[in-house]
Structures are given as C-alpha cells and as structure tokens.
Amino acid sequence: MTDATSSNVPGERSGKTSLYAQDARTKRRNAAEARFRAYGIAAIVVAILALIGLVSSILYNGSSAFRQTFITMDIYLDPAKLDKDGSGDIEKIAKVSTFGYAPLIAKAFEAEFEKPGIGVEGLTAKKAAKMISKEGPADLRRFVLANPDKIGETVTFKFLASGRIDGYYKGRVTAETAKLDKNVSPEQLLLADQLKEAGVLKTTFNFGFLTNADASENRPEAAGLGVAILGSFYMMLVVLCLTLPIGVAASIYLEEFAPKNWITDIVEVNISNLAAVPSIVFGILGLAIFINFMGLPQSAPIVGGLVLTLMTLPTIIIATRASLKAVPPSIRDAALGVGASKMQAVFHHVLPLAAPGILTGTIIGLAQALGETAPLLLIGMVAFVREYPAGPPEGFFDPAAALPVQVYNWTQRADPAFVERASGAIIVLLVFLLAMNAIAIILRRRFERRW
Amino acid sequence: MSAGLVILAVIAIAIGGFFIGRSRALGSVQGDVRKLHSLPNYYGQTVFLFSAVPALLVTFAWLLLQPLYVESQVSGMITAADVPEGGSMSLVLADVRRISSGLDIAITSGALTEDQLATMSADETDVRAQLAEVGIAVASEVRQNVFAAAKEYRDINAGLKITLTIVALVLALGGAVYAMSRITPDFRARNVAEMAIKALLILSSTVAILTTIGIVFSLLFETSNFFRMYPAKDFFLSLTWNPQFTGGSDLGIAPLLWGTLYVSFVALVFAVPIGLLVAVFLSEYASKRVRSLIKPAIEILAGIPTIVYGLFALITIGPLLRDYFAQPLGLGTSSSSVLTAGLVMGIMLIPFVSSLSDDVINAVPQSMRDGSYGLGATQSETVKQVILPAALPGIVGAVLLAASRAIGETMIVVMGAGAAAKLSLNPFEAMTTITVKIVSQLTGDTEFASPETLVAFALGLSLFVVTLGLNVLALYIVRKYREQYE
Amino acid sequence: MNDMSFVERNVDTKNIKIAAKDVQVYYGDTHAIKDVNVNIEDKTVTAFIGPSGCGKSTFLRCLNRMNDTIDVCRVKGDILLDGEDIYDKKVDPVQLRAKVGMVFQKPNPFPKSIYDNVAYGPRIHGLAKNKAELDEIVEKSLRRGAIWDEVKDRLDAPGTGLSGGQQQRLCIARAVATEPEVLLMDEPCSALDPIATAQVEELIDELRERYSVIIVTHSMQQAARVSQKTAFFHLGNLVEFGETGQIFTNPEDPRTESYITGRIG
Predict the structure, then answer these.
(1) Interface pTM (ipTM) of the complex?
(2) Which of B38, B360, B414, C222 is the most buried (most CB within 10 A)?
C-alpha cells in the first residue's frame, strides 16, 4: 500500500482543503446540477404549457358555440299562402313546402324596413331574408303544422340568424370577407347592425346547441348535440350494464378463486395485452362480428356500447383486481375463521370493502369509453343522423351519433362555422369527463381506506 | 314475443322461483331455520339460478345463431341472376333483411295485411314504392326472387321466434320445477348455489379470452379473403398505395407503414425526453407539495380523449406549423403533416411516458440513492449515473409501450397527418398511416367484397401483430426489471 | 459477556476529528436527538450502541448531512469537522460527503461492474487524471477493502453478483476510493453471516490506520471487538461516552449497565 502523504499519488486530494471554500470542480459540478434541474423544470413547463395551449385553444375556438344570434320578428301567417282554400285541413297545409314560407319572412323584413333607421340601400327584403338561417322557414313550417289554428294571426317568432351573420358577431366574418362571400353581403351586415340597434337581432345563450339534432352542411347555425349526447348516454348505459357485472365477476374469479395454472396465466396475460390493443382494432372487431356476422344495425348505440364494453373491460378488470388485492387477507381469514364459505367471505366482506375502488375504476373506465372515437367510426356512427333515437330499449337499435364522433363529423365539413361547433362539442365532452373524474376523485377521497 | 320480452319473462319466472323455493324450504321445516342445511335464501337462489341461467344462455346463443341459420336457408332462394352487376350475395341478403323489416313495419302500421302480403308478388306490385311509404328505402327495384326470399325470411324468423319463446319458457319453468323438487332440509343448497355462481364467475372471465379470439379470427378470416383477391406479395412489397374503386388498385403497405413509423418516431422524440425529465424531476427533485400539484396536472393530459388532440392538431398546431415554419422555409403548404401529428401525439404521450417512468424510477431502491449521495455525488450525478442506468430496462419497457400506443393511435393522425400515402422524408409533408387508411377504407358506403375494403383487415392485422409484439416485449422487460428489485 | 475479547488498543492522545455540540435533531414534530455532545477522535474506531430507535443511526447520518435528503428533518447545534461547522451555509454537502464517507446497513452496490462501482466516487470527484490512475485507485481501494484477491479476475462482472459479505466489502472499497477522512458505518454487518462479519470486522480494524471510523451497531460484542471508544444512546440522549473497555466493564450510568446486562434493549 502506498503512503498517503504525497499529493502526487492518484486519488489523494492535494493538501488540506477547507469545507468553507468550494473548489473549482465542485463549482462546475454544482453548475451541472443547476443545469439538470433547469432541464427538468423546462420539461415540466413544456408539458404544462401544452396542457394550457390545448385547453385554451379549445376554449377560444369553442366557447362562442354557446352563444347564438337570433332575429325575432313578427310574422303574419298569411292564410292566402298557407291555407289557400281556408279549410284548415292539416293535410293541405302540409302540402305547402318550406319554400312557401320564405315569402312570409321576406314580408316581415319589409315591415321592419318601414321602421325608422332600418334599411340599407340596394338590399331588398328578399335578400335581407337570406339573413335568416335556412332552418328558419322549416322551423316556421313546423310551428304552423303544430298550431294550424294560428293561421291568419301575427306571431312573434325567434329565428336563427344565418351562420354568416352569427359569424359576424363572433368575429369570423367581416365586411371585407363578406365582399368575397356569396352567402353574405356587406349590406346584410350593415342591416344586421341596424337590427341589433333596434333590438330585433340579439345574441343569447344557445340552448339549441345542447338539444338540437345535427344539421346539414350549409346550416351550421342549427347544428346541435342533442342526438349525440343521447347516443353517447345510451352507449354509456350499455357499457355500464355490461362491464360492471362482467368485469367484477371476472376479477373476483381471477383474484379470489382461480387456481394458479397455465390457463389463468393465459387469461391474465391476455387481459393485460387486451388493455393495450389499439382501439381501432376493437372497431374492426365490432364491424366484423356485431354488424357483418350478427347483423346488428349500423350506427346503433347497442353496437357502439358492445364495442366500448369489450374495450373497457380490461381497464375495469385491472382496477377491480387492484382494489380486491388491497383488501388485506386478514379480513378473509376472519370471515373464514367464523365458518363462512369462501364465496360468503368474498361477497359479504371483501367485495363491499373493495366497492369504492371498483366504482372509481368503473367511472374512469366509462370516462375513457365516452371519449373514444376511432372504433365508433368503423361501426357507422359517422352517419348523418337527424332523428332522435327512441326511448330505451328500442332506442338502442336506432341510429344515433356519439359526442366524440360528432366532433369528428363536424371537422370534416367545409364551413368554418363548424370548427366552432366542433370545439364547442369538445367543451361539452370535457365537462362530462371532468364531472365523471370529479365524482371518481370524491368517491376515492371519501371512502378510501388505508390498511 | 320479442326477444326482450322473452328475457324479461324468464327473469320473472326465476324471481318467482326464488320466493317459492325460499318458502318451500322454510315450509319443509315448519319455519325452523336451524333444521335447514343452508340459509333459506340459498334455496331460493338455487331455484333462481337453475331457472334463469340455462334459459338465458339458450336465448342468447339462439339470438346469435338465428340470423346465420335463416340466411343459409334463404340464400338458396336467390339465383345468380338476382345478384346485380358488380354487387354481391351479401348485398342482396342485406336487401332481403331490409325488405322483410319493411314488411313488418308495413303490417304493424296497417298499410298492409297478412293476407294481402301472402298473395302479393313483386312482379305485380311496386314493392319499392310501398316500402318507401313506410320509410324504408330500397336501392334497386325488388325482383320477385328477392321478394319471395324476404317473405320466406320473415316467415322463418317468425317461426323461430315462437319456437324460441316456447323453448326459453319451458327451460325456465323446467329448471325451476326441477330445483324445487330437490328442496329438502338436507339439500345442500348453499354448495349448489355457490357452485353455480362460481360457474358464472368463470364464464365472465372468459369474455376477455373470447374478445381476443374474436379479434384474431375476424382479422384472420377477412385477411385471408383479401389475400385471395390480392396477392400478399404485392401487399407487403409494393411501394405504392393507390386504391381505385374501379379495380386495378395498388395496395402496398409500405408507404403507410413508413408514415406510421415516421409520425411515431417524431412523437417519441418529443415525448420521451420530456416525459423522462418530468418523471425524474417529480420523483427526485420536487417537494411533496409541488409533486401533488404538478402530477395531477400532467395526468389531466392523459385523461383527455384523443379526439381533442386531433382537433388541437387540426385547428391550432397544423396552421401554426404551416404559417410559421413550413411556408417560410419553403418546405410545404399543408397544415396536416407528419410534424403536426407527431408533435400533438408527443404531447399526448408525455403523461404516458412520465407516469410509467415515474413508477420504474420509484422502484429503484432508496439504498442506491443513499449509496451515491454517501459518496458525495450530486443529485444529477446520482440520477444520471445510478438511477437511470438502474431503471433502464423499465424505461425501455415504458418507451416500447409508448411506441405501441403511438403506432395504434388513430384520431390524431386522421385529423393531423393527412391522407396522402407517400414515402418522403420531409416532415412538413402530409403523409398517411395504417390507422388512417383503416378508417378511410371502412367508412362510407363501401362494398364489402372488394379488395379495397378488405385491405383494411389486412392492415388491421398488421397493426395488431406489431402492437401486440411491442406490448409483449415491453411487459416482459418490465416484469424482469421488477423481479430484479423484489 | 464472558467471551468478550477486547482488541488491544493504543491509547495515545488523538486529535479531535469531529466535535458535536448541543446537537438536536427533529423529524417533523418528533425530537429525535437531544443535546448530544461528543468528541470523535482521528484514527480511532468509535462505536455507537443502544436499543433500536435510540437515535444512533440518525446521529450518524447527521455527520455527513445525509439527513438533508429527508425533507422533514431539521438539525440544530454545531457539528465541527476539523474545526469547521459542517452545517455552515458555505459548506457544500457534496464536498463534505467526499470527506466523510458512508457504508450502509444493507450492501448496496450499484447495478454496474465491480470496477465501475469503485471508480464511481473518484470519477465524480475527478480524482484521476487518466485511465491508468483510475485503475490504480480502484486496485488500491479494493485492496483496502480486503476484496482485491477475490475479484481481481472479474472486475467487469456486475457488483450485484457478489455474495453479501463481498458486496459489503465492495461497498467499503467504494467508500474509501474517494479518500475520505472519516468513515461512517451504519450497522455494516447486520445483513451478513458470521464469517462475512468477521472479515468485515477485521477490515474495520485495518481501516483505523487511516481513517476515523464511526460504526453504529446493536451488537455489543461487535462494539467490544472493533472499537476503542463507545457511545451509548438511549431515547435520543447520549447517555455515556468513553473508552470501550470502561463502558463494558464499569459503566457509570445505570442505564448503560442495564443495557449491557440485557435488561433494556
């Protein structure tokens, strides 16, 4: 062994050093330390910024979907146009098409023009009537068919403004863009401002967005989420009714009863792999098995629900097994010790204690299923559905949309107003997810036990 | 009786059986529970299970197999002449189904009576118009053979429905009576009921296996159909993807695979360093308070559905990259691009990588850190030279899992990557992926027997095999890693 | 206690290496160490004994500021290393720990090769100018750790593949490789079998030539075998500190006597 006094010997620090003075190397090392720390903070900042960017982009684009411009006018329901022979026969009134209602609206604009301060040169009442959504005459027709006795009276009717006029008040449309746009003219925008001044045109909260059905390509202002929300709700109902019992039963068997052998090994490996199978593969499965093989209808919530069930099942099984595992064996021993059967021990003691964890896992699984899109595209949920599905259980077989698919659907349309709708739909979706996760967190906080 | 009603009736019988069984058991010992082998509820349960389970299982199996049986019966009635040019048997059968359900509606709404239907013939009546009246649209004129098949289809279905009702109810009642006949004070009802419940539990746990089998078989079956129409060699080796619905398509997987791998690579390049640094910072540096704030915030990213990321790519990141990078640099004019999809997918994967890495870093024993600090190492030296090397297998596993997620991700690439199948290196160009093409080939009105549609199954199978391989490998590595420190 | 054999010890007056004055340690609200005053000499083996939870390990970890890594832990009072307060603001714990090395209860070799385990300290502290010097340091340290002969042919093998006793001697070699002045050992033999324990104890006695060694142990026999000075801790107090021989044969405090005779512990 070498003598330790010489400072030339490798591994010996030269001379006595004070702890109070940092040597150059330590300074360098501390600088490296600070740099590394900064990288870590930078990474977190990037991640948080991404989150903020994501959420604020959606809020920025989507919040305006909850406001909508309406034009409220008095409409004279002219019997000469709607009920020519005056018989009041509903069949005959129904023969007047949507097209026949447009002149009534133009008339109403003529009436508006007579008021002081309203009217733009070169803008006829007929052109002004184009400021009303194409959905407007249809709405009016539905109203008349529902209340045929109102014919001949003057009713106050709240029309949706067209998508461009609505966009004008949301900053999407300006006088410059209007010049190039065949769907709107700068004169119409001027008139819109005058009508707003007069209180005829108002922008208010858009309940229709939450309750209306989808609308066609050229009337974004009428498009709503009603069918999609109902469809998603039906699917969640199917998922809940199937995954919870099957998932819990499977978990109980695997965790409490299954013998340790190669078969259960395969089941376990299978479940963990199934959890990582791309969701679109489940869509292919649904298309091949449920639709082509079993002949279930396309676009139906039942098929969507079944596909999402198979997809969510592994998640729920994993969560349930974790919470069953968390119940200490002493509880089982205690139950078995007083002469309960294994089954009684599980169902009377272990399962109730694991219930909060199971519920939390189920809600999180449902939230995951609610946001899933890709498999639903393949089973035809992208179809344009205007009809509300019937009440359960028949409604499960009716065509319906789903929230996330509706978003996708809207992004595929040309009119930029649909971007706002899609973002707004995302906000609705996120609110649902937030609520579900909040419930899960509250359940966990409230009932979580530490053993 | 409709299937739903049959199920309800069976359940009602079973519930009735529960109460009768329970009271019979109590009656057999004159109300003295102590003389029974099991608690009275178990006798009720036994009756319930014997009554409900066989009847319901038969009902479900029946419902599953009935369409197959009926179709095989009916398809014999359709001749080759009934299949329109370019169409297929399955399309005609779909028409048959639609016509027969239209006839049902017509009869319930009173537009048609059973007698009228029996004498009706497609050659004389305009069936299409009649169906349109009740809201059922049929694409082409209804031929007599097809119409006859539809009527036959209806008749067989109606017959089977009655049979099913009878069989199910007989089974339910028979099961209940059988179980009740066995009730004596010595009958070991609890053991029987528990055996039955255990059987149900086992049945439930096979659902996962059945799902896998369903996936594998449906993919294999349709893929083999595809390869019968389109040579497998071309699918794997052709460098062009150009589906033509008029025939003569090039369906090479290579450009799609390239797009998939390129997008996933960009995503991982973005997500792995950031996710890893986040995990290191949270597990090694952050105080409890900071951790409890940041960790959930980052996990929010994991809970956001991919459609949201897709929209983010479409309306924000895509235009941003195009206006500030691609166009000024002259590299492209498309807002959907590999970089758009990759970047957004990277954001999606950050929480995935960070929470998996967090787990593996936390699994490195504290004694390793102590050993390193005890030698005078700084925290970053400890992380870089001790913790990360020790956690490396786990981190590799996490990255593989992330890669598998990236490869199988659909919505982000559908909305962010574009639809053009290209073999290019420019990340600002739109490219397409396997998942995008699965969606585009299987949505819309597609004809099910053409190679252009069936290729989606071959793509799906490729995707399934690749992701499964990555998962199995990753899980194996992570498990080995965990064993090391247990 | 009859089979206890005391190591022959030279009783030269030694320099004070570490001086602790009124040290208090708190874990959150728990007062873990109360008013500890102790002077630890250079080139001596000092043993800390006492029942479990008496604070001896906690105090040991104060001496190289390992407690810094625990958020809730606070240390008050002065601990001087060669007259310099190690809790002074100017002191970098990284530099301190290079001077005050530590060996832990459970052998904790890094999942690296034997060579890299030993070279880790010299590398991070920059003690070697080149590969040859590093080789030299590694060999010297492994020799000092009394494990060179067992591993010299497989320096590239993973350190985790060694037996428990070998692992602990590797950890000692790793600790001496940074050329510390004080070596802290936290129950270094508690995870080892008797033969490995004997080897480590022998090693500790050799290490005394160069370093001030402080060993925490709950084996009184071990304290008696390896140490020259012994400190007895009880409920966070330093009850008695003195020559090992005296503590074991003629303790002054009744609590020490009760512990040594096995009445508390």
Answers:
(1) 0.89
(2) B414
Q: What percent of chain A has pLDDT over 90?
A: 30
pLDDT at C1 over 50: no
User: Min CA distance, C249 vs chain B (Å)?
Assistant: 35
Q: Is the pLDDT of residue C9 over 60?
A: no
| Long-range pairs, A386-390, Cβ under 8 A, ≥24 | A386/A213, A386/A214, A386/A215, A386/A227, A387/A213, A387/A227, A388/A213, A388/A226, A388/A227, A388/A230, A389/A227, A389/A230, A389/A231, A389/A234, A389/A301
Nearest neighbour of A32 by CB, restricted to B298, B316, B380: B380
CB contact under 8 A, B215 and A276: no
Q: Identify which of B90, B281, B347 has the shortest CB distance to residue A44.
A: B281
Give the residue on A whose Cα is nearest the Cα of C80: A19
Cα separation values, C155 from B105, C133, C142, C152, Å: 85, 16, 10, 6
Residue type, C167: Q
Name chain A's partners: 3 or more CB pairs within 8 A: B, C
The answer, for A6 touching chain C at a CB cutoff of 8 Å, is no
Query: The domain A226-447: what is its CATH number?
Result: 1.10.3720.10
Q: What pTM was computed for the model?
A: 0.85
What residues does CATH 1.10.3720.10 cover in chain B?
A: 241-484
Angle between helices A102-113 and A135-146 (to 10 degrees): 110
Ordered DSSP codes for C190-250: TTS-HHHHHHHHHHHHHHTTTSEEEEE-S-HHHHHHH-SEEEEEETTEEEEEEEHHHHHHS
Domains and CATH numbers, chain C: 16-260 (3.40.50.300)
Residue in B374, B386, B484 closest to C97 by CB: B374
Interval B8-42: pLDDT, tens: 888 999 999 899 888 888 888 887 878 888 888 88
pLDDT in tens, A191-234: 888 888 888 888 888 888 888 888 888 888 888 898 999 999 99
Q: For the domain B241-484, what is the CATH superfamily, name and number?
A: MetI-like (1.10.3720.10)
Residues A13, C86: C-beta atoms closer than 8 Å:
no
- Cβ contact, residue pair A19, C91, below 8 Å: yes
